[in-house]
Batch of 2 targets.
Target 1
Amino acid sequence: MARIGFIGLGNMGLPMAQNLIKAGHSVVGLDVTSAQVDKFVAAGGTAAATVKEVASASDVVVTMLPAGAQVRDIYLGKGGVIASANAGTLLIDSSTVDVETARAVSAAAAGRGLAMLDAPVSGGVGGAQAGTLTFMVGGDAAAFEQAKPVLEKMGKTIVHAGGPGNGQAAKICNNMILGVSMIAVSEAFVLAEKLGLDAQKLFDISSKSSGQCWSMTSYCPVPGLVPASPANRDYEAGFTAAMMLKDLKLAQDAAKASGAATPLGADAATLYQRYVDSGEAGRDFSGIIAQVRRDK
Ligand code: NAD
């Protein structure tokens, strides 16, 4: 069984690391938040004090960090993962970061002869706990095959999206669809309300018609229509509006850098920014329907 190092034991990282432990791996972990480390140790993990300690004791290093800045720091810094890993160690970053950071870190790893994958996820905290995450993986095919048995302990759908950075590209494209479709569904229900069309009636019709989409039938922003929706729990996250905004901004940065036209993606980022600025950063992203209602 591969020895695994895990850096970033937050809402996602902790349950992912727990699933690796449950599967029989020995896992050495690190986080700057001591409460998270305590939970990791209680689950059978071994706490490390430095990045170097994690990297030098592991066959595979997995990171699950907030954003690109932390990923660059942990991988590229003095005493970082790339400087400290032994030859043959496989590096997997599952954080959601910009494509440029993913490619820069991967190139630095290659410079030391280390294989690296960007492997962001979808499925949220529930998927991390259940071990049913989707992994979108960028990097070379041999490294992907090597990583698969480890990723399968944490996820159900593991897709090789192409070379370095393509996992991140898939993630931000998917989440741009999600952000835009959640707003579209919200606008439709608010319009229906104003036209005197009952929400249940619109749901019954659209969920079986061409307007059907995940934002409507799995995560409906109107309470009372889909039992598992955060709308039924006062929009308790779930996937926060702040995280959606982060991903929509990454998509906008990538669109600008690559010359792609994404006007609806840009509007979605603006709307989520307004929602977050109204004090709702921690609310589930489907709460955007409140912003749609407020806008005149
Ligand atoms: P989180 O903030 O709960 O976890 C990040 C952890 O990293 C924290 O525990 C923090 O203390 C730790 N950390 C930060 N800097 C560190 C450092 N220098 N060294 C060691 N530890 C450090 O965030 P999360 O919800 O677990 O998300 C992690 C990543 O997964 C993000 O990139 C996010 O966009 C992505 N993601 C999250 C979800 C979700 O639903 N939460 C879904 C898909 C993807």
Target 2
Amino acid sequence: MANQAANDTARNVGPVILLGPPGAGKGTQAKQIVDRYGVPQISTGDLLRDHVGRGTELGLEAKAIMARGELVPDELMYGMVATRLREADCQRGFVLDGFPRTAAQAGWLDAFLEKEVFENRAEKNPGKSPEKSERCPPVVIQLLVDYTQLLLRLTGRRSCPTCGRLYNIHFQPPLVDELCDVDESKLVIRNDDREEIISERLAAYEKQTKPVADYYRLQRRLVAVNADRPREEIAAQVFGVIDRHCLDSQGAC
Ligand code: AP5
């Protein structure tokens, strides 16, 4: 068991892409993957909110778009994502939560991985044959959740501004009302978790993000998971998908 845990946090993992509508549990499952495999969570929503909070040029452009529940234009996303994926902690792999979200973003990511991630890994392991030359395609996990459940998850979500821990007043309330269990910070409600904005976000998902699932389905990289279950059950299945993917790629990831 201890050996297994040591293996999981030493080998290359993924990249893992979590796909799913707002409230599907991408952030929740990403955190489980981080804990298990020791690779970083790259949440484009969190990165954008950080830019908004710091008032950067990107943040100023993204703020009103996000407040309306629309997607930030692709061209604004690429630089931000590339910068993050080039950081040293992404070398063993990473879990993408909220990216790609358009078919164009999916194509951009494939090109980025090929040029900047796989070639770098291959250069570092010149002894490996080209077939095993670290070209591990992403494993794409689609979280499927019923619409009514999504609404409950989004309207009930609370998060800790200090440690980022997620709660839900319906499904996972804090021990003390509105306070984080870990550091007792006052929990906050996300700006875009109001019902009228939620419906815009879900509409953007239907129109712009569903084609991303088709993109990966055609490449036989998509694995759908029923995410209308307790989070631990979902996580167990997600780990199984990742471990199988790593086995199938014969040491490339
Ligand atoms: P982003 O922050 O990515 O939001 P989202 O995709 O709408 O997803 P959420 O964070 O709302 O939900 P989640 O699936 O992570 O669920 P969570 O785990 O939190 O994006 C925000 C905005 O940024 C976008 O609208 C857009 O403007 C912009 N943006 C971001 N990426 C972009 C991109 N690539 N391109 C363009 N624009 C982009 O869970 C939700 C709740 O449910 C929590 O309370 C949780 O505790 C609870 N919960 C989770 N799992 C379960 C379970 N199994 N059972 C019961 N409750 C559960």
